[in-house]
Structure prediction request, 414 residues.
Amino acid sequence: MSLITEDFVTPLLVDEMNVLTGLDSTSPSFAETLVSIRRRLHQNPEIGLSEFKTSRFISDTLEAYGLKVVGPLATTGLFVDIVGSHPGPMVAYRSDIDALPIQDTKTVSYRSQNPGLAHLCGHDAHTTIGMGIAMILHDHRELIKGTVRVFFQPNEEGIPSGAPLMIKDGVLNGVQAVYASHVDPTLKSGVYGLISGTATASADRFKICVVAQTTGHSARPHQATDTIWIATQIMNALYQLIGRVSDARKPAVIAICRLKAGEAYNVIPAEAEFGGTFRCTENGEREVIKTHIEQVAIRMGAVYGAEVHVDFDYGSPPVVNDGSLISILRETILHSDGPDAIFDIPVPSMGAEDFAHYLDQVPGALLRVGTCSSPETSYVLHDSNFDIDEDILEKAAHLWAKTLIAYLDKQHVS
Prediction:
């Protein structure tokens, strides 16, 4: 009988006679269970802070497996604590649960059933891996020297994102270190990407509005305040900031991604608006670039007679991986899968991950999980055809279970 039911929020019951008998076991039933969980999530995506059915499904399924669920936190977040048979500290694993406002265009049986929403960043896989970790560790509490907290966070994609809300609601209380992973379609399935130090950039949004007192005639721009022309001058100036006011040795990027102005072809509009993001691999550069964006825009507007308004939305800081936590991951991967399963990431990604907020509080590390095994699983993140090799779900859950146990072992020895 299929494990996928018509009702998304019906818990996915796992036959306890078919659970793993050991951490190195590869029970087909367990792997199939994780695939079913992922497909159920993939079919029923929900936007950030509205993941009510997703949260209920996670909770009901884990409770049916025998775990005690705590929540909600941050509206739709939750966590489970797996308390080991031996005393020790607490380590955590974060999964994100929200989807993107993009149409799923794949022609697969498990494509999104919610128009305009889809799990095209792999959060359904992250959630499934987290649930798998919790199930494995629940069955092997005798190996745990301390406590493992597996938590499920809403709204990773939004600004302000869900991580600060989860922290405010106490998800890190008692936690000594935190791990997370992100699927990566640029890596082969079964390969894991490791990097110590800066792993991703910050991501902050800006919006600039150029305002004139009146519209103008396109035949006589010298008699008008040409808001679009002024906006283009500001944009050109912003693109020149990187490496001039910021330190060229510290990667940063400004990207203008939206532009909105008038409708008529012969009227200079009274208002032009544009915006985008700026990203930095070091926190210190964020304030430098923000200050110059604001000053350049306002001063250039004043030179040409326009009023300029600048607004910012602060996003996530850079993810900075703790080297000792990456070393534990490396040792676990080498022991489980050998050196060919490791890809040493040479440079940080300029993408962002709100997992970074947790690392402002405790040491942590983010792992890249390769998911590409075919043309169908090679589409980049956020592509409307994005999909994964589902074989990685069970493998990654086992890897993380072993890593979290190894972390607590090392703390116990020290």
Summary: The longest strand covers residues 175-188.
